[in-house]
Every structure is written in structure tokens, then in C-alpha cells.
Specification:
Purple Acid Phosphatase, chain A, domain 2, 13 strands, 5-stranded mixed β-sheet, 6-stranded mixed β-sheet, alpha/beta, 4 helices, 196 residues, 27% strand
Amino acid sequence: MKILIVADEECKALWDYYQPGKLDGLDLILSCGDLKASYLSFLATFAPCPVLYVHGNHDDIYQQHPPEGCICVDGKVYVHQGLRIVGLGGSMRYKPGINQYTDIQMACRASSLLPRIWMHKGFDILLTHAPGADMVEQHDLAHKGFWAFNRLLDKYQPAMFFHGHTHLSYSRHIKRESMYGNTRVINGYERYLVEL
């Protein structure tokens, strides 16, 4: 299965300079947040597959104008062709905003999904906006990760964890890929293609 991950910054190659066929062969597009609704709608129009998304901390506008033709999986367990996806958007609360949470609030959001995760016998992908705690070298409150994500990974050991929020352009120390236990962690900044 070919999955395109997008996050944080619209990819000019997929939007401004789009050529027919660029999205061919994809089985799924996953957005980790902080992208224009019109960009996700554009991808949904030309991709031969569903576009799933969670909210980023800058996606409050989605309340009035959600991405058309896309599926919000924020706060849900979603199954696509047998692939079990848990979606938890938002970032650490650092100013007022509907997609920002304290660590306790995110832990409550994650806990509310546990019955559905149990019903599906675990999950394969954790799709978030923010990273897990101590996964990225960013120490400001806005980019601090959530311990709730680490606990989900510790307990269920999914194959993949996709997040955004920490742009690769912030620092040369921010990695595109890493491992957390048995889980492959991928920063989806701009775009990244993954095969499962």
C-alpha cells in the first residue's frame, strides 16, 4: 500500500506545478494538519484514493470551511482496507485555540478511544499533528510533544506513527524518520511517500 503523508506546508510540486498523473498509484493520503483546506480538497479531487486528515493547531478555520471531499479522522478510529488508523490532532496549548490541548486533555482524548481500539484489536497507524514527548528536539511549549502518544505506542506498538508540526526547516537536528520501540516514526512535513 502506498501512502502519501502531507503536513504543515503545501507542496508546490503537487499544487502549483501539478501535472496529471502525479498522484497515480496512491492508495491513501494522510494529512497531519496545518494545511489549507483548498489544498486538501485539490488533492482529493485528483487523487485516486481517500484523503484523511487530523487538525493542526492552525486549522481552526476548518470549523467553518472544512476540506471538501476529505474525511476527518480526528478523535476517531478509522479502518481503510483493513488498515486501522487512530487520529488525534492538535498541539500543546500555548495560546487560545480550539485545536490546542494540555497534556491531560490529550490523555483524556486518547483514553476515550480505548474502547474502539480494543474493539479493533489495536491499530496500525497513529496519525497526529504534534509528535510524542521527547521525540523531536524542540523545547518550546508550542512544539512539545504529548506523553499520551508515547503511552499509546508503548501499549499497542503500531507499525507507524505519522506526525507533523515540527517543520524540518526549524533545525537540522529534526529528523524525517526515527524509531520508537518497534514503531516507525515519520515526520510528514510537506510530503513523504511511505509503502506498507
